[in-house]
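Let us work through a complete example step by step.
Step 1: write down the sequence.
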Amino acid sequence: MKKIYLSCFFMLLLFSFTANAQTAGDYQSFANGNWNNSATWERFDGTSFVPAANAPANTDGIITIRNGHNVTVNSAVTADQVVVNAGGTLTQTADFTLANGAGDDLVVNGTYDLQANVLAGPGNVLLQAGSQMTISAASLKQLQNTAITNNGSINWQDGNIRFDAPNSTLINNGTFTISGNNTSFFNGGRLSITNNATFTKISTGTSNVTGILLFSNAGTLNCNGGNFVFGDGNAGGTFTNAGSLVFSTGTFSIGPGCIYNHNAGAAISGSGSFVNTGTANFNINQTFPSTISLSTTGNIAGAGDLIINSLLTIQGNITGGGLLNIKNSATWNSGLLTRNVLIDAGQTLTLTTGTEKQLQNATITNNGSINWQNGDIRFDAPNSTLINNGTFTIGANNATYFNGGRLNITNNGSFIKNTTGNSSLTGILLFSNAGTVNCNSGNLNFGEANAGGTFTNLTTGTVILNNGNFTNGATTTFNNNSGASIKGNGVFNFASVFNNNGIIAPGLSPGLLTINGPEPLSVNSNLQIEMLDGSGAGTGHDQLIRAGNITLAGTLTITQTGTVPNGTYTIISLTSGTVSGNFATTNLPVGYSVLINATNVQLVRSGALPLNLISFTGSKLNNDAMLQWKTANEINVKQFEVQRSENSFDFITVGSVAAGGNLYSFSDNNTFITKSVVFYRLKSIDADGKFTYSGIVKLSNQQSGQFSIFPNPVKDIITISGLKQSGTLMLFTTEGKLLQQQKVTTQSITMDLSGYAKGTYLLQYENEGARHTQKLIKR
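Step 2: predict the structure and record it as tokens.
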């Protein structure tokens, strides 16, 4: 009996709680049906639920859709405090307005299926954990002044979504899935999204998430398929990422006029494509893995470094204070680059399309390859820098140019021009070449009158023409420093300043090199000529060609690399102008001599030894200059002209001596009555009119200068006498190699030659600016 009473007590208590939870005017679903059909509902009368006389409205109490019931809004409804129980469904096909009453205005514990028309506020929607909202059917949906908080799941399956004014909001704390290929868009109103959990696109097509005012991602956005496009040019929008952007074959696109902020806490991973047509601000460092390609036709900015392990396409502006590190192939089609760039070894940056590229205040360090295929490059202020440690290839007939800014180039690698046309490197402030510049075709033009520029070929630098041309423009300077080389087959046209203290080496074993403009030789230059065979200039031996005067100076070095028959070979040829001056030093193989003519310089290769000027000395006797010289192998020599100069450059003939014998003397009488210092040289003239010059002897009022060698020829020890107790004695090979050097402190010195091979040597005495040389024979 007690058990019966106890059971009745609990049933009464439960009934009391149920009754107390309801208020008169509350509604609950009675069956499946349309919202505006009263038969769908029951109304609480204060004691129990009874059949409703009318459909519920926002002035009624709590409206509950119970488990197992599906209520459809098929005509306009305004409601408040709607609850969809677990297992219940609210389907919307007509306008549904939520009034902003007490508490939450639509609470979903079951299913909310939005198929068409307007979901309007000012009330809010709360999707509880375990609930779901489906956006289905192809009809247009509209959000207006609605706040949605999702703690369950939302699945956007079909149909476009329009945002009407005022703006709406979505806070996602659960799961938002895009499984269709549709579009959200602006219509006076915008949507702000805060994602704290998971936002996933799984459809394979394009989903346009536009009309978004602000997408704040602190959770995870998954691009698992197709293209997730954020924003467009009409409505703009900002995507701020402080969470994860994860790719699984999908694409994430920033629309034109939109902004992507990559902030602290943000990460990009997976496999897919990141496409920017708006502005992407990378405010922290970001490494793009090799599985995510980056393409930009908009702007990239921000202070963070970008490390790109994947394919990169640039067709917009890349700015900001961070580094752009290219670790894979990259293509630059257009746009402005103001960010420092590092190209890793083995990687390539290719400049394509005819659209102009711009550099501004950027430093590009190339350890891999840069391939300039198309498009001019403009330099905006401030200046930019290119450091090439790899390969820079010009495969286009385009130009760089000044636009308030300049470019400084340091080439430590290879700089190559391959195209047949004209490529202009103008707007260059300084080109410092420590590597190799190859002109393999066409014309490489450096500098122009408006912007000037300096090209400095450093000690380790080489400029090679391989059937290409190099032009140094007006108001520019070309410096060929000591140790640097200019060589090859082609034409150098210097329109302005050419300072040559280095090497000029025509040919590429061998060949023809033309140098026009300022004179190419100096006291420090070295003209190097290869003699290969007797097939002629360009194939058998090198030749320097020039339109204009040439003053011989510096060093001439001849190298024989093959079998060269006896004959005369033109190594310098002038198409206009005349030859003057002489080489200070000539390094010739045995059997060669130099002939200096009015319009060319020739090498004579003879089976017999050419004229051997063993010694040429001078001394002062009273007011007369006494000259002596000794020769050997006089073959075809007609006479010797004695020439005098007061400055060692401009010589006049003061007498001549007929050839015959091997010991000669000449007296230039009364020279020192009016002159304190004079210089003499011999012009050896052959019967056919060809000639060579001797070295220069300096005489002054304060010197006698003559010294003697005994014995000559010598076996071991020689004695040099007639010295002035000062100066230096130097022993050379006939090729100019210094073997021995002694300071002179007495009038007579001995020198031991026992350690040297048999042959001919040169002994030179230098004192008080005068230099005297005699040949000696070692037996």
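Step 3: interpret the result. Confidence is low (pLDDT under 50) at residues 1-20.
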